[in-house]
Design a protein that fits this description.
Layout lengths: L1 H23 L21 E2 L10 E2 H6 L4 E6 L4 H16 L3 E7 L3 H11 L5 E5 L3 H6 L6 E5 L5 E6 L4 H15 L1
Parallel strand pairs: 3-4, 4-5
Antiparallel strand pairs: 1-2, 3-6, 6-7
Length: 180
């Protein structure tokens, strides 16, 4: 009986260690996080504009009135990967004929306005989610995240992480799937 009591903490430690090693091991794509929103309409959004930015706020009704494929990008000025992906999203909007819409997540309006002035503002509509409520409704795990929304307003793909490097290729593959 004493041996069993001695072995129990060791067994628990081994189980916890096994989960830690599994969690830290590679081979998983963080952009492939599951989302219950895939194949669902965009959740109800009602976001005001960012003070100092010349774009309207963002509502679900606005998204449904927009034609074609839309990219809903959740970003923040304090996010370095957001800065890295910004030129790629701008180019996708211009060259691929996609409508870019944005949600500025948990960001000060003056910082967001300065960031967009510096990098350019490719967004047709842009809502402020200072409180983070829309982020919760969208189920984001952090920024940046980009959702591909089809012409009917249905979320077809969620891409967690920056759209750069290998991520850009995976994003384009997902976009091609939506276009089919």
């Amino acid at each position: 009986m004493k041996r069993l009591l001695f072995a129990l903490p060791l067994l628990v430690a081994l189980i916890i260690g096994g989960f830690a090693i599994w969690g830290l091991s590679g081979g998983r794509d963080p952009s492939a996080l599951p989302s219950v929103l895939i194949s669902q309409p965009v959740p109800q959004l009602d976001l005001g504009p960012i003070e100092g930015v010349d774009r309207p706020g963002l509502t679900t009704a606005d998204i449904s009135r927009m034609e074609g494929i839309k990219l809903l990008n959740v970003f923040a000025s304090w996010c370095a990967p957001c800065r890295a992906e910004h030129p790629n999203l701008t180019r996708l909007g211009q060259e691929e004929g996609l409508t870019l819409i944005g949600i500025n997540y948990k960001d000060k309006p003056e910082a967001a306005a300065k960031w967009l002035e510096e990098l350019g503002n490719p967004y047709t509509a842009l809502g402020s989610d200072y409180a983070g409520r829309a982020g919760i409704d969208l189920g984001i795990s952090g920024v940046p995240e980009t959702f591909i929304i089809d012409a009917d307003g249905i979320i077809r793909h969620r891409f967690a992480g920056p759209v750069v490097g290998d991520g850009l290729k995976r994003f384009m593959d997902a976009l091609d799937e939506v276009r089919k």
